[in-house]
Specification:
Transmembrane segments: 21-39, 59-77, 89-107, 127-145, 157-175
Keywords: Membrane, Transmembrane, Transmembrane helix
Oligomer: single chain
Number of domains: 1
Number of helices: 2
Shape: rod-shaped
Largest sheet: none
Structural class: mainly alpha
Length: 185
Amino acid sequence: MTSKEANPKSKTLNSKRNIYYYYYYYYYYYYYYYYYYYYYYYYYYYYYYYYYYYYYYYYYYYYYYYYYYYYYYYYYYYYYYYYYYYYYYYYYYYYYYYYYYYYYYYYYYYYYYYYYYYYYYYYYYYYYYYYYYYYYYYYYYYYYYYYYYYYYYYYYYYYYYYYYYYYYYYYYYYYYYYYYYYYYY
């Protein structure tokens, strides 16, 4: 016989001790695994929540920053482009208008000046020829008149003189002739 069978009391003691150890190890492992899983779950949840929040915050911040940067860049680019385009258009329009106005003014002035010069030139030569013709005509007329008058006067004078001389000559001739005739015959 063994000692357990020889001593039944020791068997009960052994069985009680086995139950005690059983419960001890049971609760020990139970609490060990309980706390282990609890802390594991807690830390896992904590870290998961923490990383999730961190990544969410980081993603949100990154997205917001990216959106803001993109929006700002786009707005700035659009504004700059619009301003540049507007400025270029305004500049081009202004200078186009300025050159057009200048060209128009210059053309108008040139045309006016040319017209005025032409008119003045025409007027001047017209009156010049007019006066020239007038004076020429006047002198010609005067000269002609004077010549005619002189000629007439001269002719008249010679005619008169000639007539007078002729008359006088014949008068005396006839007178002497008759006198001689009557006297001698």
